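Suppose a colleague, Dr. K., hands you the sequence of a protein chain of 221 amino acids and asks what its three-dimensional shape might be. Before reaching for any lab equipment, you can write down a predicted structure in token form. Begin with the sequence itself:
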Amino acid sequence: MRILLIEDNAELARSVLDRLALDGHAVDHAATLAGADDCLAGAAYDLILLDITLPDGDGRAFLARQRARGADTPVIVMTARSAVSDRVGTLDLGADDYVTKPFDFAELEARVRAVLRRRGGAAANLRRYGDLEFDPLGASVTVAGEVRELRSRELRLFEVFLSAPGRVLSKDQLNDRLFSYAETVSDNAIEVYVARLRKKLAGSTARIETVHGLGYRLTGG
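The predicted structure, expressed as tokens, is then:
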């Protein structure tokens, strides 16, 4: 999934970026609200991680503006403010979750998974398509009951297809979901990852079809 991190503490930002990248997420970083606006103007995000105190403004005002304009991208607020009134006020502004600094990275990852799962309409842990079964918490995929081991980027690509079965996704759309601005991506990167994913899903009734000139889609569910 593609995530926007809005955080002005460079050391914390780097730690969060590195940790989420290990999970296969594409993460863009903005140290200011102005930088965040630039990122949002150029890409669609599955989740925003938002600090409250930023050099050019208050993250809560940014959140309020996003919700006022109808943007429904999930937001997890990260802040050192721990008072109940601060948490309640931020949630009332439209935040989807709240984590207090300093936080354990395992907790942040769990909250990210939970918010993305709710975003996908999957309150339950397991998601199914045909004979495929996906466990977001366990990061495992089974084909007709057989566990298949997917690497982090393959797993994220599988999630993208599973979130829109039957829908044709272009290479540009898949690039946007898998890679951040900071990553150098080869022209055939998506072809390579699609080919790897097809091998991992071999034997399934579901398949990733190539729609010539348009992109790829998950079918057979």
